[in-house]
Amino acid sequence: MKWLYNHIRSAFITKTYGPAAAVGLPSSLVLSRERVVMAEEAKLSPLTGEMEGGDGALAPLSLCGVSVLSCLLLACSYVGSLYVWRSDLPRDHPAVIKRRFTSVLIVSGLAPLFVWAWREFTGVKTTPSLLALMGIRFEGLIPAVILPLLLTMVLFLGPLMQLAFDCPWSFMDGIRVAFDPCFWMLCFSDMRWLRNQVVAPLTEELVFRACMLPMLVPCAGPATAIFTCPLFFGVAHFHHMIELLRFRQGTLSGIFLSAVFQFSYTAVFGAYTAFIFIRTGHLMGPVLCHSFCNYMGFPAISTAMEHPHRHIVLSSYLMGVVLFFLLLFPFTDPSFYGLPTPVCSLASTTSSLCLP
């Protein structure tokens, strides 16, 4: 019986770990062979013990870690670039604005390298080009310029109605001003206008949407990425609290509440532009919506309550919100922008957000 047991045991070891194990080689070599076999069966790396995909890509857990760290590093680089210049001047001073333009434009120009490095390191296979993943493409460009902006204007129907009542200009006066080159020259010479309407929307959407979403979608999926990406965007706006404290612009509690409100508002807005980016696959739509919202500011609901035409204004607020939710999916139908949108091609499973 002992002979039979030894024979069966020898045959099993030879088949599983090779003939070297059966003739009594050191146990370390046998265990190394065993580790390789187990690694092949479980798709583990025999050197690191981490899961690998069949195409060499990192497993979901490792992929998520690299993606989140990449986004965090990118967000810190963007915010940190604002403070490389030492100055005692406030943030709205033209000299400070010009210096910060230089910083954020450099970081934004380097931001695509983060996406490229992430793709090379993780081994994620992408059919669309890097620029297409970041929403820089021609297919569906015209709808991407018009429809998301129109949808955002519908949401702001109440504030727009309020602005129309309070504006001293007639409609034709507004049209003439809009086509007056002198008006636009005056705007582009104003550093604050240039920051709020051009540089901030372009660089923030490029960094926090176009670069971060392609890194988050393969890990978390489109739906989760929409609500994860704005957290980086919202936290990045906490740096305003530093300047308010530095120049003593309010009480500590008031500054903290203001920062919390701004985080909440920017996080919700970030989720909206992330939704637009994933549904349309274009950068231009979020940039234009961002610029428009910066111009309009947060709706002055308290002022609307006391407006002489408050019934019309408040009705416009309500109508705008209702129409916005009714038109949200039809106006962002991916079939208008080219199916599938590039960022949706990175999702491991098909998401309803990527479907018409």
What does this structure look like?
This protein is mainly alpha-helical and 356 residues long. The chain is 71% helix and 0% strand. The chain has 18 helices and no strands. The protein has helices at residues 2-17, 19-22, 27-42, 60-81, 94-122, 130-133, 141-155, 157-166, 171-178, 181-188, 191-211, 213-220, 222-236, 239-246, 252-280, 284-296, 301-305, 310-331. The longest helix has 29 residues, at 94-122. The chain starts with a helix and ends in a 25-residue tail after the last helix. Residues 1-5 and 19-55 have low confidence and may be disordered.
Which stretches of 5+ consecutive residues score pLDDT under 50? 1-5, 19-55
Order of helices and strands: HHHHHHHHHHHHHHHHHH
SSE class: mainly alpha
Number-wise, the strands total: 0
The oligomerization state is single chain
How large is the count of helical segments? 18
Average pLDDT metric? 82
Largest sheet: none
Overall helicity: over 70%
* Shape call: globular
Q: DSSP strand (E) fraction?
A: under 5%
Rg computed from alpha carbons, rounded to a whole number of angstroms: 28 Å
C-alpha end-to-end distance:
70 Å
